[in-house]
Amino acid sequence: xxxxxxxxxxxxxxxxxxxxxxxxxxxxxxxxxxxxxxxxxxxxxxxxxxxxxxxxxxxxxxxxxxxxxxxxxxxxxxxxxxxxxxxxxxxxxxxxxxxxxxxxxxxxxxxxxxxxxxxxxxxxxxxxxxxxxxxxxxxxxxxxxxxxxxxxxxxxxxx
Length: 159
Description:
- By secondary structure, the chain is mainly α.
- It has 2 domains: 29-128, no CATH class; 132-159.
- It contains 9 helices and no strands.
- Helix 3 crosses helix 4 and helix 7 packs antiparallel against helix 8 (120-127).
- The longest helix has 30 residues, at 29-58.
């Protein structure tokens, strides 16, 4: 809280603010960052292993193995969410489990699971992309803008 805001408070409000600050639970920021780093790193390590599997056993190249790897990671995260295991990973790892593409799969399927009692069309279908819809929308829009810019630059001989 800034000093200007503190000056505008009455003495009782300032006393309560000090009381609250003394008893507020301190968050272990460094510990949370380390856990998020390792959980996100482990998810990426699993993704790299899946990508190497596709390259080795199905003769994909480095560039073509990306799409099936992402689809596999999303599918695995949806299965883990359905069985209730991904929530425990997210509780421990925080943003480390939300930032990789597995967080997208978790967001989609948990909304569907939460609203399944309302029916398949209005419950699951209507609420599945409530949280993830904006991610899809802005991702597609950004890809369109970048592809348009790249096409214009190629046409003009810039790239």
